């Protein structure tokens, strides 16, 4: 087997058999991503607190209570029984990890910093990693949120916050069939939206053996290429289907007849000797500790009281005492929220159907039922089948066995075949199970089989999937707003034929359609001097400038379709070329005042704006609705929006939700009021649940405060990129930079602190890491989805975890990018070398010619000196320096040397405009 690398350090693996290749993939993951995959192994087992400390106890408790590691073991047993060839292939991957882990750990300073020794991987470890990575994808904690809304506000309020919540994972994906491309062959493109982690959650990789040759995005620690791949014959991609396939059950538990002191001991070897010292902290312990149950436990089901499996496990905690956790499992599933001490802190009141309910709100436990635990199968048989696929029929047939997570799939092949379907396991059950916590004792709440066949449709026009309601609608409850999907379709409709090289311009589109409700309310505010709706007293409309600091991009804010500013396409960036573009702004259409005329929206109010607020109001109504990093108007809008969110969250109508319930910490992102208001802002601004006058007043005060803040600030107005910065998650953070380069003269200027990322340096890590918290364009509902939580933070923790373009005409014309780089080792040249291009929305070439790759000598690891000369490995059309250089007009880093606190970076020359596919990538063709 041989490891090659391209200009970006991306591994290309070649072996003589599929099993040998699986070993090579595991070995490479251990060398390039040792720290990352070991953290993931510990997360799947619930043992991260042993080296990360008390802050990791919450996740470890959940992982153990949900039985993630045990479920992975069961899934392996099923794989051994039903598909021994895949089980053997999986074991070869694990053998490769074990063979390389010690060497990989020696190169990763995090191991020494934490005192963690590399462990031994079991055959089921990759299944556990896959499960722990995706267990929260279906958003089952939202059912807990609905319980809180119903209890505190009333049953008819539960739909008020219906939108994709703060913890969901989203994606963009589009399939352009051959009759809409310049080559006559299909093109697939997209980007999965996840929490950005360092190292990244996806690894660019190539896997080649006599049976197949596949490029794609792998999950480190898991063999094969599950989500995004191109075999040369067929390509596939996925998005989150937003399906609901996990249920929560209210469980009434009682003591059984086992007697006092009958502790069964823990799976980790504990014998219950110290069970007399339970953990009474909120959400901790469990039934056995919290209410002193030491005998058998029973749960009330449809057929009466039935035994509950139970044992006690101990979580070791670095720098703190161990934590004992009661592990309970009913016939429905593992108990993930046990009763806390006393009914005052019950998870939620007992439903009326509870046979023991006397109206007093009895304490109930909550169990989780999820498909891999029920089926004892994760669908891993699909992974080698995808690698061998030659047609969309092969992909379709393979995905019939997929389990979790449930995805919408696009696929296309070189023969012209296309596929658009849902894949995964969704149970058939009572519709109420999708919305709320289900009573365990009601027979009609049990699962009754599986949805089959899964929904699909024929691809006639470009197929678009962006987590909106679509073919997966029968399987879910809450979906993403339609803005991203509608915007992608609008962009694709503006041009007859597309090429793979055109797709990056769609990726980087920053149009924010969800700004409309707030801007309509803003348009209804009166000025103190009597003018309103974007008109001065002399009747002349104000000029339409974008509000960028340097005055670039002087164009109309009205849409090319004549519908007014809410549909203005605008350029993807102010540095767009002058080439003909189907997305270039058209002449002015409807007036700005159309914002105030929509029926059911804001009525004229007697509230008067101060002159400064009136000027800000006019600026925002002239704004082109693009969340570009260099836009001062985008920053002003985001600031106003954040203040509106906070004011609505403080409104008396919503005040009962301000105090989160005492559920485990791992569920709190779904239960906090401010994020819920932020993501449901469109609904809240147009719903009569909050009185119209109060909504208008919230907007007026937000504008006044923002205008006053701007007037009192020194220097020029802030740009969106000054506020909106990448905040990647790291198990062991690197130090946060405190300064960045800004002006054209290279002078450094302060940047806002990132509250949740300040950290001490990793001992032993080279001081060469670049700024991994750069300024960003985009926003939550933009195609360029860089999500923040308005009202809480402008920083973005969730964005495109990768971007890809799969060309079915010429695979070598495909493109891809990840947020950081190919290496997971701090200080490595490929740790974050793709970041500047990712920030700008550019892509790097997929190299398929082996002669353009550099073989890595045996024993040479990615932590050593960079053996790759980019000019030797980049395809000829991309070898010009401009192909690799960030754009000085759009990149937040405009100088040749990036100086930051505790960091210095390698030289990034930015003297030339980028060139890719021989056209300016800043503007769509």
List keywords for this structure.
925 residues; alpha+beta; Penicillin Amidohydrolase, domain 1; Penicillin G acylase, beta-roll domain; 9-stranded mixed β-sheet; 24 helices; 15% strand; globular; hydrolase activity, acting on carbon-nitrogen (but not peptide) bonds, in linear amides; Penicillin_amidase_A-knob; calcium; metal ion binding
Uncertain segments? 258-293, 343-347, 357-362, 528-606, 735-769, 859-925
What is the CATH homologous superfamily assignment of the domain at 12-134? Penicillin Amidohydrolase, domain 1
Helix content: 25-40%
Note the gap between the termini: 43 Å
| Envelope shape | globular
The radius of gyration is 28 Å
Fraction in beta strands: 15-25%
**CATH architectural label of the domain at 12-134:** Orthogonal Bundle
- Topology-level CATH name of the domain at 12-134: Penicillin Amidohydrolase, domain 1
Q: Mean pLDDT across all residues, rounded?
A: 79
Strand order of the largest sheet: 17-16-8-7-6-5-2-1-29
Largest sheet: 9 strands, mixed
Number of strands: 31
CATH domain class name of the domain at 12-134: Mainly Alpha
* Alpha plus pi helix count: 24
Structural class: alpha+beta
Oligomeric category = single chain
Describe the structure.
The relative contact order is 0.13. Helix 5 (68-82) packs across helix 8 (125-134). Mean pLDDT is 79; it is low at 258-293, 343-347, 357-362, 528-606, 735-769 and 859-925. The strands form seven sheets. Strands 17-16-8-7-6-5-2-1-29 form a nine-stranded mixed sheet, with helices on one face. Strand 7 and strand 8 (234-240) form a beta hairpin. It has 24 helices and 31 strands. The protein is globular and about 75 Å long. The chain is of the alpha+beta class. Residues 564-600, 881-894 have a biased composition (Low complexity). Ca(2+) binds at residues 244, 247. Residues 548-558, 867-880, 916-925 have a biased composition (Basic and acidic residues).
